[in-house]
């Protein structure tokens, strides 16, 4: 097969030079800013697709990390903007990986234009987790980001023939302002799935943006932010993100006490707490719950999303410019 030649460099990055632009779309403000920025640049919509990596899978009664509304919010956003959206996830999601004992990591499932595909989960050495991901920039101990997002994305690229012989740009929304680790990321670099038969670059177009610039682009397009921001969260991570602040844990305890019960039970079973500074009850006791409007709670805790994505009169949500707790 003919090799796909290198045609961009990190210094002279040209997002128009790609056949396909995949935007890693969490539903958080930085991923929304990426979509809006790519559209403002004028990249044709028919080259763009959104990929959302689900953290949880299925209704097994096990702990679900993410906001109940996130799936429906990202669906509503993609529909409102008229951009295709593909979901992908690890079979069994966070809960199965958390409870994995002397077993292989589960297969990856990913939607494609021609249907659902499955890959992986058959090779490797059985191993055990039974421990929450740790609050670290190191992705081997903070395994949720790598196992449930980064690796899922790579599997979905590497296992789709439609990227063979093509130039693909993977857009992600990390910003330097968010953490020291993120400040060191390159704005554009070859992606690990790039090889002789497919070219893949990762581009972080909002890497140097301030939070103000992110809200400004959302205001220009009148986009209603994810429900978590309206409750007071300044970053839209999992609802029970391991990086949650004490006040976020106190807020979760108010609106999703069943999740706290599950986390407490796991901490006791594993003999290892989610946080290094004490158990979940200690974190909750140190925090002050956000002043959450019951209607905003209803929207965030619902698995459906029925609000318009475009606001008639745009408003900044309560969580904007709030405490910067979230993945590093
Ligand atoms: S948002 Fe937090 S808990 Fe969820 S995958 Fe990222 S680091 Fe892990």
UniProtKB/TrEMBL annotation:
Q: Return the SUPFAM superfamilies for the record.
A: Adenine nucleotide alpha hydrolases-like (SSF52402)
Q: Which Pfam families match?
A: PAPS_reduct
The terms under GO molecular function for this entry are:
catalytic activity
Q: The Phosphoadenosine phosphosulphate reductase domain covers which part of the protein?
A: 144-241
Which protein, by its recorded name, is this?
Answer: Phosphoadenosine phosphosulfate reductase family protein
The source organism is: Noviherbaspirillum pedocola
